[in-house]
Amino acid sequence: MLSSTLKNSIKSTTLKRAQSTFSTPVTVSLIEGDGIGVEITESVKRIFAKAGAPIIWEDCDVGPIIKNNNTAIPDKAVASIKKNKVALKGPLATPIGKGHRSLNLTLRQTFGLFANLRPAASIQGYDFLYKDIDFVVVRENTEGEYFGVEHQINDDNVVSIKLITSKASEKVIKFAIDQAAKIDRKKVVVVTQETVQPKTDGLFKKTGESLASYNKDIEIEFELLETYIYNSVKDPKKYHDYVVVAPNLYGDIITDLNSGLAVGSLGMTPSANIGTDVSIFEAVHGSAPDIAGKDLANPSAMLFAGCMLLEHVGLGEYSEKIKKAALATIAEGIKTGDLKGKSSNTEYTNAIIAKL
Question: Is the alpha carbon torsion for 37, 287, 28, 328 positive or negative?
């Protein structure tokens, strides 16, 4: 049986969308990714096939190109993702010193993926620092310090632009409020550092204040980043009744922290990048080139991201089946090295498949 926390976590990650939006089978653009991406993508494909999930995978190469002096996604990949409206993405590594900005950022800005939904929950059968953790965080996905514009003034001085707009802030805070209502959480906490950056973070906070009456059933509170981090480590359950929403950089920091508190591994953390027309689901960890090709990678984060995708397109019954099999496998002690286990990627994948 799943613990109540795991059931809540499954509910928390659900993105409700009408089944009529997608025809069955659903075609999904598949971005294999770099490093361990090859291995974890193969694991997900095998598990989905065994579960009978009606998915058609359409391979999608997002290898960067330069267009108008900016990093861009190849036209064929853009067309695939726009056509299918959903994609599953493995980890991408940006080449260092080759003039490319982050491909993850490029994808988010290309498709207007304004909200990044990241849950983090304790796992039955795996005890870590805390038990029964259940965080839900919404991260603004297109602006902030990750806007990606820097200027070299001279050899000793550089400037990075931090962009905050009321339009983007309103969209992501409304999304967080809507998400709280969907998963029966009563509060949204808006996290900023507005005492240090009163113009940029101040605008994000002010936008949150303006939405106080957007949903009268959801209470909006405000905290500084440092306060949130202190409280979340001291008493993580404080935020079990909240959906947390934050600007881009802070959201990135918070969600990695939450994963560390819940399971001590980013290898278990899925993510949904939500736009008006397109949504891309991904593992939050990196490409881990040090273990690539060694059959050591944990495919769970990408697998659970795939489950979020299934829920998004109205195929939640397959998501439920896959997650139960994966969590039961971990509870039996079949775990990869990041969870202090000794199983290989193949052994872990095979054990999940055996339960489907």
Answer: positive
